[in-house]
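Fig. S4 source data, part A: sequence.
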Amino acid sequence: MAIPKQERQDIRLLKRKQTRWDRRQITVEGEKAILELLKSSWITERIYFTAGLELSESLSQSLHAAIGLVEVSAKDMELMTSLKTAPGLLALASMPDKAGRAEHEAGVWLYLDHMNDPGNVGTLIRVADWFGMAGVVLSTESADPFGPKAIQSSMGSAFHTPIRIQNFKDLPSRWTTVVMGLDAGGQNLFELTASDAPCLLVVGSESHGVSADVHKACHVMASIPGAGRAESLNASVAGAIAVASLVQQGVPMGQRR
């Protein structure tokens, strides 16, 4: 069935960051991400699906309880999707008041400094979720953690992970007691001691690394030693290795379960 043109247009406009935050609405696509959305405290307003779509048993059960299940044509879905290939399942969700405004919790937080690749942003949110970190802080210049590509890359972890959007210089002091940055010229990450354990782990942008001001504020700069010929590591890979190293050292990640 076709949906009203205005409704379809409203969904398409949510591809824009400013529109998402003005309306405090996002779209979520694909089975895994939508299943995580439905498990979370976020409010799912409507779910659009194309006829004949085959779903997993767990998602089918969740969808039966969902409010506002709407069947749409394949053409409408293609017009609404933010992905290259429409998965045939799209949810419209409202941002809770705390979205992007997480309060401080004890443990280790990731700080994403000018990270403009939404894929890396989403992957690192998933890393934080996997290791049970206290949460993720993003500079205002970083990609929107609730944008379609970041949500897709996080595989729904953005709905379960405390996220705060705030520039480093504006963070209260309790967030920056011990700050560790990742930099190719830093100390060997695997030789650092427990006394170097950070409360904030900084991962810089894909192109320029940690910004100058944040670099100056870091108490420790750590590097990941390599033995091959690759020039550098992807930002999300570097962040994941650093977090795994801290876990191996027995550094408490956070209080979440």
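Fig. S4 source data, part B ends here. The beta strands are 25-29, 43-50, 69-72, 89-94, 109-112, 135-138, 163-165, 179-188, 200-203, 220-223.
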